[in-house]
Amino acid sequence: MDPEITREKLIRAVRDQIECELLLGASWLPFERINNNPNRTDPDDNPTGQMTMAARAKKQVNEMDKRPMDSKQEKLDQLARVVAACCECPLHKSRLNCVPGEGDPNARIVFVGEAPGQSEDEQGRPFVGRSGDLLTNIIGAMGLSRQAVFIGNILKCRPPNNANPTPEQVAACSHFLHEQLAIIQPEVVVALGACAAQTLLKCKTPIGRLRGEFHEYRPTPDSAPIKLVATYHPSYLLRNYTPDARLSVWKDMQDVLKELGMPIPKK
Ligand code: SF4
């Protein structure tokens, strides 16, 4: 066994997974069957006076269920807890932290990248490495701040060695992003790079051909359409820091600002 895995970490992981299953409405957990058996006492009535882990998780979920879930922030927070306990693909084994995304739950613009890198994995925050610094500068050049937008990724856990996401990983994880976008309902989604654009638009068209026009994206089949702009990923700009590439991204961002009726800062 990995010596890094302590008893406390294991207990915490099991507890998180149980809470996740409860949030998702799991009916197979043993205490549900105990509750349905009239000959058994309620597991909350532990003679030691201590609540079992399952009872505590159930109590927390019951308390959450009683609260009105009308706040976008609450819904995003709840989704982030589910992501934190997710084991739907093998990437959960190598992550240090999951990276659900962050920003204004009422953002008009959401930036979507591909997957967390090393710095993001270490900090549990999206776009905080070199690419993140560049994205922060791009957002600043638009006259905005990171706090005024929402930033997320297609994958919530880092692929080892920053490998390209596999179709299986995208299939397992992308529903989280669709759910986040359904909650936020931004006016424009900026897809950073081919993986984000092709996943959201369900196409294989190269990024160069997706750029330069607004596309229609729906988080769910019943959702109102959201405008989507595809542009180059900041890591592409770092590798190809040419005036042409920078101008292309700036032109895409100007299109976003114009679409939203926002002023275009002078360069
Ligand atoms: S990458 Fe996504 S699907 Fe895979 S474990 Fe992380 S949160 Fe779950």
Give a quick precis of the structure.
The protein has helices at residues 7-23, 30-36, 53-66, 72-84, 118-123, 130-141, 167-184, 194-201, 207-210, 234-239, 243-259, and strands at residues 102-103, 109-113, 150-153, 188-192, 215-217, 226-231.
Structure description:
With 267 residues, the protein is an alpha/beta fold. The protein folds into two domains: 7-66, no CATH class; 96-259, Uracil-DNA glycosylase-like domain (Uracil-DNA Glycosylase, subunit E, 3-Layer(aba) Sandwich). It is built from eleven helices and six strands. It has helices at residues 7-23, 30-36, 53-66, 72-84, 118-123, 130-141, 167-184, 194-201, 207-210, 234-239, 243-259, and strands at residues 102-103, 109-113, 150-153, 188-192, 215-217, 226-231. Strands 1-3-2-4-6-5 form a six-stranded mixed β-sheet, sandwiched between helices. Strand 5 and strand 6 (226-231) form a beta hairpin. The longest helix has 18 residues, at 167-184. The structure holds iron/sulfur cluster.
SSE topology sketch:
Layout: H1 7-23, H2 30-36, H3 53-66, H4 72-84, E1 102-103, E2 109-113, H5 118-123, H6 130-141, E3 150-153, H7 167-184, E4 188-192, H8 194-201, H9 207-210, E5 215-217, E6 226-231, H10 234-239, H11 243-259
Parallel strand pairs: 2-3, 2-4, 4-6
Antiparallel strand pairs: 1-3, 5-6
This protein binds iron/sulfur cluster.
